Amino acid sequence: MRIGLISLMACCLTMFFVNSQQEIFSPEDLWKLNRLSGTSISPDETMVLYQVTSYDVNKNAGKTSLYVYNLEHNNSAKINGTHSTMRGAKWFGDNRIAYLNSHGEFDVMYSVSISGDDPIEMARFPKSSGVQDFKFSPNENYFITLQKVKTGNTIHEKYDDVPSTSALVYDELMFRHWDTYRDEFSNQLFLYTLKEGKVGGEGKNIQQGEVYHGVMPPFGGLEDVTFTSDEEKVVYATKKMDNDQFAVSTNSDLFEYHILEGTTKNISKAYLGYDTHPSFSPNGKYLAWLSMARDGFEADKNDIILRDLETGTDANLTKDIDLTISAFHWSEDEKKVYFLAMIHATHQLFEFDIKKGKHSQLTDGIFNYSDFSVLGKEFIATRQSMLVPNDLYRVKMKNGEAEQLTEVNEDLLDKFGKPTVEKRWITTSDNKKMLTWVILPPNFDESKKYPSLLYCQGGPQSAVSQFFSYRWNFRLMAEQ
Hints:
With 480 residues, the chain is mainly beta. It is built from five helices and 35 strands. It has helices spanning 27-32, 155-158, 243-248, 410-413, 474-479; strands at 2-8, 35-41, 47-56, 61-70, 75-78, 87-92, 96-103, 106-112, 120-126, 133-136, 142-150, 176-177, 180-181, 185-195, 198-199, 204-205, 225-227, 233-238, 253-258, 263-266, 275-280, 286-291, 303-308, 314-316, 325-330, 336-343, 346-353, 358-361, 368-375, 378-384, 391-396, 402-404, 420-427, 433-440, 453-456. Strands 10, 11, 14, 15 and 16 form a five-stranded antiparallel β-sheet that branches. Strand 7 (96-103) and strand 8 form a beta hairpin. The longest helix is centred in the N-terminal third of the chain and has 6 residues, at 27-32. It is globular and about 70 Å long.
């Protein structure tokens, strides 16, 4: 089956068929939309933390605000005092929220109550450290950060006869990944102790003496770093390879750092493709991660590997399932794994029963679930489609029924006509079935002829799914 062709019917004269009260969606309107992300459930499971970012095109700037959705009272409240430079917000302690914020020559980690009225400084980092994010250990005795470390030479250190040049010189790969050029710095992992909610001394670089990144650039983050439940070890996913090899290989590995001993070992040598997203089960019996089988094939099938930490044996849970996994979470009793995977060009939620070795699809529809957390017998998830960006949903595991919790763009989108999205299967020249999306403009009249736009986006890493893109926005195309 080939999935990845989209047909857009967009009429230049749409304005003649749209109700006079409806406006035409424009690129300027696209940039006015609020962007919801970063959801997480509070320690007492009564609230959901999320952030909303908005942009001002004229000022060329964005602003991020924090919100808490109360699951008992079904309402959202903005946290006071949040700033445009705030990042990395997450729950801490007794329903407090920790985040990083720029303050003069420092990046400061604060914790704040949900009222936002009592910020407490937890840690302070010089701007030169380039701290990007942080993650707490299960019992919050430690936290780990991603920080900038000088591991190479600048052009002026290599060539002292060109003191004024701003040129970059490369004689080996990898010189650039997407829009990020390789420079003299690596983003490495620093471990800090916490005492009574504040940093307990200098951080320790757990990669001291290495030249490698602690997570894979340019998109990797602390989702690829985790602590054991007893807080004795840190496991992280990265590629520890020299530049030329790094450029052509997809063989990342899981590295286990022993906190008291200060030692590191590779715990996934047998796996030759990408190994990412390590996650320990709630009681620490298992370690699971995502893995691809083949080195050099970045579009390989992504499976869930399960390691029994008592016996040391591994099992590929999803090897016989025709799905590639993008994210997963444990059930509280460790009997199931819930995962996100693409099926028929949409991202849906599934469960896998470890004992039975069987999986089942829990949700279905013309939309993408883009992130999720487990809350008892429900999920708290973000959902989007080609027509609407992310909102927060509450989803029942039993039947996939979804309740929309937020409407962060309802007022902005209601004034526009709404295109119609249809799913169509076509037979290809080699007698295969290929799924296509057809997007019809608002107030489409099937008795009339319209210009059409054929959109083909390459894979094979992913299909053209129900994503709401700020680069290739299909709603924008269909409404012109």
